[in-house]
Amino acid sequence: xxxxxxxxxxxxxxxxxxxxxxxxxxxxxxxxxxxxxxxxxxxxxxxxxxxxxxxxxxxxxxxxxxxxxxxxxxxxxxxxxxxxxxxxxxxxxxxxxxxxxxxxxxxxxxxxxxx
Amino acid sequence: xxxxxxxxxxxxxxxxxxxxxxxxxxxxxxxxxxxxxxxxxxxxxxxxxxxxxxxxxxxxxxxxxxxxxxxxxxxxxxxxxxxxxxxxxxxxxxxxxxxxxxxxxxxxxxxxxxxxxxxxxxxxxxxxxxxxxxxxxxxxxxxxxxxxxxxxxxxxxxxxxxxxxxxxxxxxxxxxxxxxxxxxxxxxxxxxxxxxxxxxxxxxxxxxxxxxxxxxxxxxxxx
Lengths: 115, 223
Prior knowledge:
Structural class of chain B: alpha/beta
Order of helices and strands of chain B: EEEHEEEHEHEHEHH
Largest interface: A-B, 51 and 59 residues
Structural class of chain A: mainly alpha
Helix content of chain A: 40-55%
CATH superfamily of chain B: P-loop containing nucleotide triphosphate hydrolases
Radius of gyration of chain B: 19 Å
Number of strands of chain B: 9
Strand order of the largest sheet of chain A: 2-1-3
Distance between the termini of chain B: 36 Å
Strand content of chain A: 5-15%
Strand order of the largest sheet of chain B: 4-5-6-3-7-8-9
Number of strands of chain A: 3
Largest sheet of chain A: 3 strands, antiparallel
Largest sheet of chain B: 7 strands, mixed
Number of helices of chain B: 6
Oligomer: heterodimer
Radius of gyration of chain A: 16 Å
């Protein structure tokens, strides 16, 4: 089948794992690199992720898209790199909570300012 | 799998697109646009609707970055119980989402995820809906009935939504009351008309959604 290429790669990249070491990553979890961490021991894909996040913050969705990785794979790599101290994440608003009216008001103000 | 920097979307070049008057994004040589240093909070909204209703156009019109795409290979291992043996095309499919970004203030960024409703059972759909503030359902007056599955899906997920009729050239126009009846909307569900190619019009549609989210009684409860 011609479409197999994209299927094999995730298993290789994540060493065959399906699930990240933690299950708290949201599409809009913000990711940055911890400066000056040694990257010698990292896999090429892990190193690419650290390199990408060295220059500023991005959401997990952006990280996956820029690296051309399926989201599920990016989550596994991100979990590893948080565990190893290479990447830092900032959670968006917790998924279980309803947005506060203050947050919605900020969104509304920001959108109105664009008109 | 990002769209190339020069890729063309319908109506791509429009004056005034992508000019957040906050921290100008830090763009590196590879074309990656990083968030401003002060961004503390990221929120997401879904832009959904049936096939070819204008989701990608809508996201592209509002996004300050060239819209990005992620793809997820899916193995359909559990299509049906009686399919366990001899399935000739144990199909693998790819599901994709397009998304864009709007920096709303020094500290707040909004992501818009273009979510195809037919991906309802995929992890990607779960990822898009989990924690989303709400959804904007785009509809097309030429096939209003195609909007029902996606509205049902949002209701199943308990995700509040507004409906925006995307104006297509030559599509029939209806009075609001007719549209509401045809779409079987609750009186409280906002219904607006928009042009997904027009930045101001698309922004106003999002404003209607967020205004609705803010006025819902649930929004006032402490998180």
